[in-house]
């Protein structure tokens, strides 16, 4: 099964959108045409989801999570192939600190037509542009506790999102996201597998090529980061068969990381392939 | 550092953490008291709200939210049990409903509210945050339904809607 996550920048909670719903819909359509079953988005709202839905073909289901929270709102949405699975909203993780309301994650139950089920956590943590490391850590603590509860109940878990942190940052450590599938299999109630690590650095043979999922342009230079990641519970690992989830950037529709127009930041979609 | 000094520091830290926990617990109790007074006023004393340890709540609330998992406790003493509490509404018939669960960190904050909907959690890092979360949870429709349901047996019957043909307001 293929799941795509993308910070599409159509309707951020602050400031203006940097991409039209039409342009975003073309990427989503491309993801479904190439076989994805779920396209999860952040930086969307109700009207953006409606506008995109009219431009994506196929038997689609949608879940929009844009309700008010504190002085802001959730900015998440999901399109899914309704002939392959169903998604229904499950829970919300919120943190309040000093009067500030921080969005931790939303979770959805995903049930395939074949009968398999898993919990899909989606998140978009606070931006690095304004610091906010403490809030990302608090989010990680809260989300971690809920995932721990899910794992103790035996539920398979998938986490996708724009963490605004790299795989080696503290918040991902709090989530116990490991790059080592054997470690995850040793303590499946504790650890999540992070198959996104390989995207965090350039390949040795091609050090000047893009890496990561986000580019930030500052004057004439630019920096690359891996803020968009996917994690899974041990349910999706099988050492005997050599099976493990894979993450790759979804480049069919957007081959370059260079920000378009006057944008200083842009994200690539990531695709998670579950065995 | 000498061993005795290690323990002095450790016990100081433990007592400080204990005081922090007591402050968080006191804040939750005060908010519960305020909420209980408000519910009592609105239901003419028909519904009582109280804070009980999770294991006690499980005895008489059939639909306990059970998402908070805790491992084996050292002694299941009062102090252990206070880490997980449930806000319970009870009607005059004795029927009870869990409104939301509360879990304290070892040092008090963050205090986590789980509910009123299952799988909705709010981590609160201060008394002000806690008050906001309590007020927001109290305003949830599910809480209203539970309180109204418990109060129904003791509340006066609702006025009978007008029969068709008698309403000339159009």
List keywords for this structure.
heterodimer, A: 275 residues, alpha+beta, six-stranded mixed β-sheet, five-stranded mixed β-sheet, 5 helices, 19% helix, 35% strand, B: 170 residues, five-stranded antiparallel β-sheet, 44% helix, 22% strand, elongated, disordered C terminus
How does this structure look, described?
The complex is a heterodimer of chains A (275) and B (170). By secondary structure, chain A is an alpha+beta fold. Helix content of chain A is 19%, strand content 35%. Chain A has five helices and 18 strands. In chain A, the strands form five sheets. In chain A, strands 3-6-2-1-18-16 form a six-stranded mixed β-sheet, with helices on one face. A five-stranded mixed β-sheet of chain A has the order 7-8-9-10-15, with helices on one face. Chain A has a three-stranded antiparallel β-sheet with strand order 14-13-17, with no helix packed on it. In chain A, a hairpin with a 4-residue loop joins strand 8 and strand 9. The mean pLDDT of chain A is 91. Chain B is of the alpha+beta class. Chain B has helices at 3-42, 54-60, 78-81, 127-138, 141-152; strands at 47-53, 84-91, 96-105, 108-114, 120-124. Chain B has a five-stranded antiparallel β-sheet. Chain B starts with a helix and ends in an 18-residue tail after the last helix. Chain A binds chain B through residues 90-99, 104, 107, 138, 141-142, 145-146, 148-149, 152, and chain B through 67-69, 110, 112, 117-126, 128-130, 132-133.
């Amino acid at each position: 099964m293929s799941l795509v996550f993308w910070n599409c920048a159509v309707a951020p909670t602050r400031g203006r959108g940097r991409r039209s719903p039409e342009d975003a819909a073309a990427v989503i359509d491309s993801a479904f045409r190439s076989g994805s079953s779920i396209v999860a988005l952040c930086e969307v709202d109700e009207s953006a989801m409606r506008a995109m839905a009219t431009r994506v073909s196929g038997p689609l289901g949608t879940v929009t999570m844009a309700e008010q929270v504190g002085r802001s709102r959730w900015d998440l949405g999901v399109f899914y192939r309704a002939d392959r699975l169903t998604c229904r909203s499950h829970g919300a993780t919120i943190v309040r600190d000093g009067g500030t309301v921080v969005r931790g994650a939303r979770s959805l139950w995903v049930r395939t037509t074949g009968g398999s089920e898993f919990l899909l956590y989606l998140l978009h943590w606070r931006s690095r542009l304004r610091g906010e490391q403490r809030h990302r850590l608090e989010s990680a603590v809260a989300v971690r506790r809920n995932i721990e509860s899910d794992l103790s109940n035996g539920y398979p878990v998938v986490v996708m999102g724009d963490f605004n942190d790299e795989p080696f940052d503290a918040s991902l450590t709090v989530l116990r996201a490991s790059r080592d599938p054997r470690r995850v299999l040793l303590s499946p109630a504790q650890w999540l597998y992070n198959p996104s690590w390989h995207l965090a650095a350039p390949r040795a043979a091609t050090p000047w090529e893009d890496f990561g999922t986000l580019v930030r342009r500052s004057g004439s230079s630019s920096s690359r980061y891996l803020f968009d990641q996917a994690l899974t519970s041990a349910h999706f690992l099988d050492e005997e068969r050599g099976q493990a989830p894979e993450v790759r950037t979804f480049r069919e529709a957007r081959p370059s990381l260079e920000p378009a127009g006057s944008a200083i930041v842009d994200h690539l979609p990531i695709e998670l392939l579950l065995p | 550092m000498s061993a005795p000094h290690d323990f002095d520091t450790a016990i100081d830290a433990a007592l400080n953490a204990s005081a922090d926990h007591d402050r968080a617990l006191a804040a939750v109790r005060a908010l519960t008291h305020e909420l209980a007074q408000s519910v009592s006023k609105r239901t003419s004393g028909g519904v009582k709200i109280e804070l009980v340890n999770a294991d006690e709540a499980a005895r008489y609330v059939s639909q306990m939210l059970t998402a908070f998992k805790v491992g084996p406790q050292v002694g299941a003493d009062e102090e252990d049990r206070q880490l997980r509490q449930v806000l319970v509404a009870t009607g005059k018939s004795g029927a009870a409903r869990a409104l939301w669960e509360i879990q304290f960190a070892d040092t008090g904050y963050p205090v986590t509210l789980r509910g009123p909907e299952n799988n909705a959690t709010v981590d609160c890092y201060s008394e002000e945050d806690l008050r906001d979360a309590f007020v927001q949870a109290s305003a949830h429709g599910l809480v209203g339904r539970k309180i109204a349901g418990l109060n129904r047996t003791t509340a006066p019957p609702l006025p009978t809607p007008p029969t068709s043909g008698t309403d000339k307001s159009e």
